[in-house]
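Lab manual, section 2.4: Encoding a predicted structure.

Procedure: take the sequence of the chain (101 residues), apply the prediction step described in section 2.3, and record the output as structure tokens. A sample record is shown.
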Amino acid sequence: MNPIFALMRRRETVDCTVEINNTFDQLGAHVRFDNGIVVHPGDEVFVHGAPVSIPYGQSESFRREATIRRAGPLERAWTRATGDFEMMELCEFSFTERALS
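Recorded output:
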């Protein structure tokens, strides 16, 4: 995080529900904020509480508290402008004329 951006941040503490799925059909975790709170590009979310481990084949929900560190206007614009480039770093493309064995 850039120190200049850190000066422009504000924090919100909100209640949320963490939904964790560890089944054959689904594997993932989602955070749903109460009161319709929306997270924007550049914002950071920290969910408080003990780490959770869900056995295979189960889905569970937990009530937690989260802190949202809001990005300032400059950081939000920077994140929007450079976000596509960072997403491409996660992708790996390979084109070949033959099948891999």
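Check your result against the sample. Strands lie at 10-22, 27-33, 44-47, 58-70.
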